[in-house]
Specification:
Radius of gyration: 24 Å
Number of helices: 16
Distance between the termini: 41 Å
Low-confidence stretches: none
Helix content: 25-40%
Largest sheet: 5 strands, mixed
Strand order of the largest sheet: 6-5-4-1-7
Shape: globular
Strand content: 5-15%
Mean pLDDT: 97
Length: about 450
């Protein structure tokens, strides 16, 4: 938690941006995974965490914009809960710790909402991503469960995005702490990947253990696979063998919710062969050119296409693509190899604020989302501002099913040398990802640098 003044100032800013009505910010509840009392590790809703700071289940926050009052609703622990879970401060004490003067039992929340409805006060809330929260809002506001989405406040969503997208210095400190834990995770994986014959799950387990050792957890399920052509491959049952590369896409989430997200691709056994090195350095070139380009005022979609062109030109040098690469990228031929976007925002969520809707976070009236294959998956396209934190993660993948489909359709045959591409069906994929902060004049990579040149990776693995 930060100081109470930080949370008070955040709530005051939100009230100033929303203008009138009640703002309803439900926290998360515990979630069960095989029977009611056996729950997942609790993860608080990020909006509630941002404005109220309490990492406890079953809280609801309300900001009364018209009166200027803040409320927290939750029930104090009874003796039964204390026996099983230990003592906890009173709700009023927790409320005071984050600058909230008013607190009440959960039963009083319904009365406040009903009074607001009768008086004609608008009630603002975001689209809930958990069904239990959707049901809670449905019952509180007397809405049909299926129509809750129709009553979501775009005014509130835009106000939250406006505030959360610019990271304060104290937030950068926390994100960098998470990046430094990720450094330990990735360098340990590189050392382990030298051991031909071990299994992916041994590396994934050690990586997750490092996050736990640093009073956190992983910021998303670890992607650790020799089949890197599957972008979100969460299967860890393969034995790692010579001639393959291992993708590790993993980050840490601190106890306060701030996250990191880094990807590295490493050669099993410790040495890149010539084919691996050529593809890897093509992706590295795209990564470094993209980072160099990032600064305030530049559209991130333009940075994405710089990465696309770098990958296409690299593949042309290897004989996998042909013709005019500028036209190839304009027409989308590169998406056979790079079928996703360059990056996303990073902060309290590993895909920061994605629960509010990608288009609210990554796009605006000036920059709208593309609909074409590949480019449609670009989560963030609008102009960069000082204080943005986002990822830069170009990749190159050889997806057999996609390659075979495009070849059968003779798709972009003027740009793709299918005879050569077919020789790479067993290759897998390469992705290289860093988290960056947009500064006044450019950007900087966050955290202790994780090795990413061929020489540096091989040196560490040795």
């Amino acid at each position: 938690m930060f100081t109470k003044d930080i949370y008070t100032n955040r709530r005051n800013q939100l009230r100033a941006d929303v203008k009138s009505g009640l703002i309803l910010l439900p926290g998360n509840k515990d979630a069960s995974y095989n029977y009611p009392k056996n729950t997942y590790r609790f993860r608080q809703d990020s909006n509630f965490l941002y404005f109220f700071g309490l990492n406890k289940p079953d809280f609801v926050g309300v900001l009364d914009v018209d009166s200027g009052e803040d409320w927290l609703f939750a029930d104090d622990f009874d003796m039964s809960a204390i026996v099983w879970m230990g003592d906890m401060p009173k709700v009023s004490e927790l409320a005071d710790s984050v600058g909230v003067k008013n607190s009440a039992p959960t039963s009083e929340l319904q009365k406040m909402i009903e009074k607001a409805i009768v008086s004609g006060q608008q009630i603002h809330f975001c689209d809930p991503y958990r069904s239990v929260t959707r049901d809670q809002i449905s019952r509180l506001l007397g809405l049909q469960y299926s129509s809750v989405k129709d009553s979501v406040s775009k005014e509130l969503i835009r106000a939250i995005v406006k505030q959360r997208e610019i990271k304060a210095d104290y937030e950068i400190v926390e994100i960098e702490k998470a990046c430094d834990v990720a450094y330990l995770m990735h360098t340990e994986a590189m050392k382990m990947a030298k051991n031909v014959g071990i299994y992916e799950y041994q590396i994934a387990g050690r990586v997750e253990g490092i996050a736990l050792e640093h009073h956190g957890t992983v910021s998303f399920p670890v992607i650790c696979s020799i089949n890197g052509q599957t972008l979100h491959n969460r299967y860890h049952g393969n034995q790692i063998t010579e001639g393959r590369m291992l993708i590790l896409d993993a980050g840490a989430e601190l106890d306060n919710g701030y996250s990191s997200d880094i990807t590295r691709t490493m050669p099993v056994g410790g040495k890149f062969n010539e084919r691996q090195k050529a593809i890897y350095e093509t992706v590295l070139d795209a990564n470094m050119k993209s980072i160099e380009m990032c600064k305030p005022g530049i559209k991130y979609r333009d940075v994405h296409f710089v990465a696309c062109l770098a990958i296409a030109e690299g593949l042309k040098k290897l004989g996998l693509m042909k013709g005019d690469m500028h036209k190839a990228v304009e027409e989308g031929a590169h998406t056979l190899f790079f079928p996703h976007g360059l990056g996303h925002m990073l902060g309290l969520d590993v895909h920061d604020m994605e629960n509010l809707g990608e288009d609210f976070v990554g796009y605006d009236d000036e920059t709208t989302r593309a609909k074409e294959f590949g480019t449609a998956y670009l989560r963030f396209g609008k102009k960069l501002k000082e204080g943005f934190v986002l990822t830069v993660e170009p990749g190159c993948y050889f997806i057999p099913q996609l390659i075979e489909q495009w070849q059968n359709e003779n798709k972009h045959a003027e740009y793709i040398n299918y005879d050569e591409v077919m020789k790479y069906l067993d290759f897998g994929g390469v992705r290289i990802e860093d988290g960056i902060l947009i500064t006044k004049d450019g950007c900087r990579v966050l955290g202790k640098p994780v090795p990413k040149t061929v020489a540096d990776i091989e040196a560490l693995m040795a």
